[in-house]
Design brief:
It is an enzyme of class 4 (lyase). GO terms for molecular function: 2-methylisocitrate dehydratase activity; 4 iron, 4 sulfur cluster binding; aconitate hydratase activity; metal ion binding. Keywords: Iron, Iron-sulfur, Lyase, Metal-binding. Its EC number is 4.2.1.3, 4.2.1.99. By secondary structure, this protein is of the alpha/beta class. It folds into five domains: 127 residues, Aconitate B, HEAT-like domain (Serine Threonine Protein Phosphatase 5, Tetratricopeptide repeat), CATH 1.25.40.310; 184 residues, Aconitase, domain 4; 162 residues, Aconitase, domain 3, CATH 3.30.499; 141 residues, 3-Layer(aba) Sandwich (Aconitase, Domain 2); 191 residues, 2-Layer Sandwich (Aconitase, domain 3). 38% of the residues lie in helices and 15% in strands. The protein contains 31 helices and 33 strands. The strands form nine sheets. The protein has a seven-stranded mixed β-sheet. A six-stranded parallel β-sheet has the order 30-31-29-28-32-33. A five-stranded parallel β-sheet has the order 18-17-16-19-20, with helices on both faces. Helix 4 runs antiparallel to helix 5 and helix 7 packs parallel to helix 9. The model has no long low-confidence stretch (mean pLDDT 93).
Amino acid sequence: MSLYKDYINEIEERKNQGLNPKPIDGAELLSEVIAQIKDTANEYREDSLKLFIYNVLPGTTSAAGVKAKFLKEIILGEVVVSEITPAFAFELLSHMKGGPSIAVLLDLALGNDVAIAEQAAKVLKTQVFLYDADLDRLKEAFLAGNVIAKDIVESYAKAEFFTKLPEVAEKIEVVTFIAGEGDISTDLLSPGNQAHSRSDRELHGQCMISPEAQKEIRALQTLHPGKSVMLIAEKGTMGVGSSRMSGVNNVALWTGKQASPYVPFVNIAPIVGGTNGISPIFLTTVDVTGGIGLDLKNWVKKTDAEGKVVLNEKGEPVLEEVYSVATGTVLTINTKAKKLYNGEKELIDIAKALTPQKMEFIKAGGSYAIVFGKKIQTFAAKLLGTPAPVVFAPSKEISIEGQGLTAVEKIFNKNAVGVTSGKVLHAGSDVRVEVNIVGSQDTTGLMTAQELEAMAATVISPIVDGAYQSGCHTASVWDKKAQANIPKLMKFMNDFGLITARDPKGEYHSMTDVIHKVLNDITIDDWAIIIGGDSHTRMSKGVAFGADSGTVALALATGEASMPIPESVKVTFKGDMKQHMDFRDVVHATQSQMLKQFGGENVFQGRIIEVHIGTLLADQAFTFTDWTAEMKAKASICISQDDTLIESLEIAKSRIQIMIDKGMDNKNRVLQGLINKANKRIEEIKSGDKPALAPDTNAKYYAEVVIDLDIIEEPMIADPDVNNEDISKRYTHDTIRDLSFYGGDKKVDLGFVGSCMVHKDDLKIVSQMLKNLEKQNGEVKFNAPLVVAAPTYNIIDELKAEGDWEYLQKYSGFEFSDLLPKNNARTEYENIMYLERPGCNLCMGNQEKAAKGDTVMATSTRLFQGRVVEDSERKKGESLLASTPVVVLSAILGRIPTIEEYKVSVEGINLTKFKPISTK
C-alpha cells in the first residue's frame, strides 16, 4: 500500500494545481492497484478500477507489462472482474499499441482455445507496432500451418489495419485563434524554462502561450462545438526556432482530440496555420500527430500598376491583406477539393498540406502508424509469396533526364530504401532513407523515451551507426528537477543502446558537452544522414535534420526517416574578408545579403542551403550550418575540399577516441566502429575512389546566392528590434545591422560567449582580447558581466594545454566545479567574468537567465522573447547576437563599441581564416 498512498498524496497535491492524477508508468504501483481491484471489499477498489482502465501509459512501460498480463488472466478466466469482461479486456489491449500487449495477443491468438484465438486475431489485425520478435513468432506459426496465423498474415498483406479505418472527413470546420503576430516561436507554445515538465503532458500544457489565451481557446470551443480551433501565426511563420514535440503536444492538448479514451493527455490532430506557412521541422511534428499545417498566404506583397513591389520608407515590402483570419473566423478545410473556404468563398489552394501521404497520416492518426504499417505489409506479402496490394500512396519519384544532382539529392539517392531500382531521384521525391547518426537531447529526451515506449521499441536499430544522448541543456544547474529527470533518462537511453553523457553506473565522468558539437564530431561521413532532437542538428559533414522527439524515437527504433527530397539554394562567396572581421559576421551577412538580393523573400526557408565553404574545418564550418536554423532552412550542407575534409575527420577521430578513453563506449563498441568508418572514408578520399561530396555541375537549384565579402566592412549584429512599430518584425533573425548603427552608446547589461555557435578559437579570442586590452589599458575591468561557457570539455583541456585557460582563469571571478555543481540557477550577476560549465547555459533559457529587462549581447542563436532574457516592467529584455570579439568588448565597456574601439581591441588577432574557393 505504501506506493499507492504516496500516489494518493501526489493526487491531492496535483488537485491543488488544477491537475488530474499523473498517468501510471511503473509496475510496482500498478501491481498494488490490481491487488485492490481483486479485493472486492477494498475501500480504494472503485478508484483503482478507474486508474487501471483510464490512467496507465501504454507501450513498453513496466506498468503496461503488468496491465497486459492482468488482462490476459481475465480473458482466460483465471481472474474474474465483473467490471472488466473478456470482451472489454480485448478492447483495452487494442489501445495499448505494442510491446507487452502484442505478446499477450499473440499468446492468445496462437493458443489452443479457438474462440479466444479468433478474438485475439481480430484485435491483432488492427495493430501495427510489431517488431522483429513479434513477426518471428507469427512467421513460425504460419510456417507450422497455424490457421489463425495465416488469417492474420493475409490481413496484414492487405493492410486492413489501415484500409478499415474511417476515411478523413471531406469537410473539417475550424475556428481561428491568432496566437500572435509575426513569427511564432515554439518557445511560446512550450517555453524553454518549463522544459523539466515536458514529459508530464497535462502539467506542461499549462504553460502554452498564456492562461488568458487558454481561456480564449476554451471559450471558442464552447461557442463553436464540433469545430477545431486552428492556431495561427498572423504575418509570420508558425513554429520557428525549434522542433519541439512538446509544442505540438500542447497545441493538440488544447485544440486536438484524444487519441484513445484509455490513454490520458495524449491528443492528436492539431490544426495550425501561418501567413508564411509552418516551419519545416515543426510541420514534421504536426505530421507525427496526424495534424494539418496550412500555408495561409493571407498577406501578400503590394504591387503597383506596373507589377513592381511597393516598398515603405525603410525599403521593406508593404503587405496587404487578401482575406481575414481574425480570431473567431469560421473556415472550412475541404480535404477532397483541397481548398480552404470561408463559407462558399474559396480562399486558397491547400493541396501541399493535403498530399496523399499527409492524408494517410491524418487517417491513421499520425505518421508512425504508416511507417510501421508499410513494414508489416511488406513482411506479410513476402511471407505469402505474393505482391503487396497497392494500398498506400506510392512514393513520389521525380527523375529529370539530363539534370545533375545537388549535394542533398546525392545523399538521399545513396541512402534511399524502397525506391525503384536504378532510378535517379530529384528534389520533390518522397523518400525513405536510412539514418546514420541520431542525437537525443536532455530536455526532450524523456519525451523521446516515452515515444519509444509508446511504439514498443526496446533496442536501437542495428543499422544506426551511432547515437548519443546529451546532458547539455541541463548542465548549468544540478537542481532537484534535473536530479529527478536526468539519471532516469540516462539509464533508459543507455539500456536502449545509445552512448550517454552520463553513465548510469557512475563509471565515467559526466559529460555535459553541447549535443551539436558531439554530433558534429561523431559524424564521420560527408554522405551521412543525421537526425537529432533539436533544431540546431545541422552538422558540417553530411546532411542533418533537426527533429521532434517522436521522429528521433522513430529513427532510433527503425533506423529510418521519411521526407521529400528538399530543394537547394547554392551559396558561394567572392572577394576577401577584412582582417578585423570574424567569420560570424560572414554568417550574418549571408542572411542580410540574401534578403536584399531577393527583395525581402527568404529563399532559404524550407530548403537546403548548399554552402561552398570548403577551406574551413568542421568546427568553424559548423558556425555557418548551425545558424541556418535561424535562416529557417530545412538543413544545410558544407561542400568541403578533400584535404580539409580529411583533416576534419582526423579531428573527429581524436575526439571519439577521447570518449572511448573516458569509458563511454558500449558493449557494441559503437564508438570504435565510428573510428573504423572514419578511417575507411579517409582512405576513399586519399585514393580518389570517392572524393569529398560535391554537386554535379549541371545540378539545378531553386536559387543561387553569391555573398560579397568585400562589402562586409563592420561586425554584423542580429537585432530582435523589440520596439519595431510593426509587431511582426520583432524577434525575427532577419534584422541584421552593422556596428556603427548603435553609435557606440547602446548600453549592454550582460555578455555571453558560449553555446553551440562557438568553438575553440572563440575561447582563444577571449583570451587574446584580454591580453590586448590589458596591454593597452594596464588592466581589464568589466563594466558588465561576461558569461563564458565552453561547448565541450575537450576544448577546455586543449585550452589548458595551450596556456589560454590559465589566462581566462586570471580574469574570472567564478569558475565551475564538477565536484560542486550549482543547485540553484543564477539570478544576479556581478561585473566579472564567469567561466561556466560546458553546456548550453543562457542559450537554452531553461535554467540560467539574464536579469529581466537586460540587454544581452551574445554569441548564441536565440533572440526570441523571453528565451535568454525576459521583459521587466522598466523595459523589454533583448538578446542581440554577434561575434565573440564584439560580445567580449561590449561586456568590458558596458556598451556596444564603436568601430574604432573594436578594431583596436582585435589588433594582431587572426580572426579571418576563411578564404572562398572557386566553384567553377
